[in-house]
Amino acid sequence: MLLQTVLIIDPKYGEQDPDTNMVLTRWQVMPSGSRVLEVGCHDEHLCRILADNGYDMYGIDLRADDGGQFPLNFTRIQGDFVQFPFAPEAFDMVVSTSALEHFGLGTYGEAFTDPEYDRKAASRIHEVLKPGGVFHCTVPYWTHDFLVSGGDFRLYDQKGLTERIIGEFEVEEQQLFKSAGYACPDDGGNPPLVKEEDTRALGPDPHLGVFLKLRKR
Length: 217
Known about the structure:
single chain, alpha/beta, two-stranded antiparallel ribbon, 4 helices, 10 strands, 17% helix, globular
């Protein structure tokens, strides 16, 4: 199994959304054949791109797939990640973009509500990762407070991130970025990165994204 230095992204996938782009540009490349799980994989491009790069991809989402053709090394599961019986330490890496903020709030047609479901999902991700494995994650961020906005998604401040997602993980990278063209200074990159001190004037809507690279000790 060869270790790549960068991900190869076929032009057929077009321009990626800012959350996906944050993950792809910061991906910790691992040996081809490594087992990777995407939690909340309804938008299939990320799984397809990683499968194209030789990873043994698994994706899970409450919603049905789009009926498209999947690579042979991509297994898609329709189900509840928190309840699905993945074996402990089954994956070398887990990724989730703009998904955990909705868990347990009825956004995806769940037959129940559980305000702690994001925390339970993060704990389950820690469980299914191998020691030393990495979790790449994006969620919405707001500097002022942890908030459930509109009843169907959460906005995380630093305390909320620490208590509900980071938990037992070790933080290797944390970076704010623009997920839309908000009136806030940025570095002009793609997606534009933002400094915490430049976000103070923002209200709860619009919000920024936060990228986390977390490692299981």
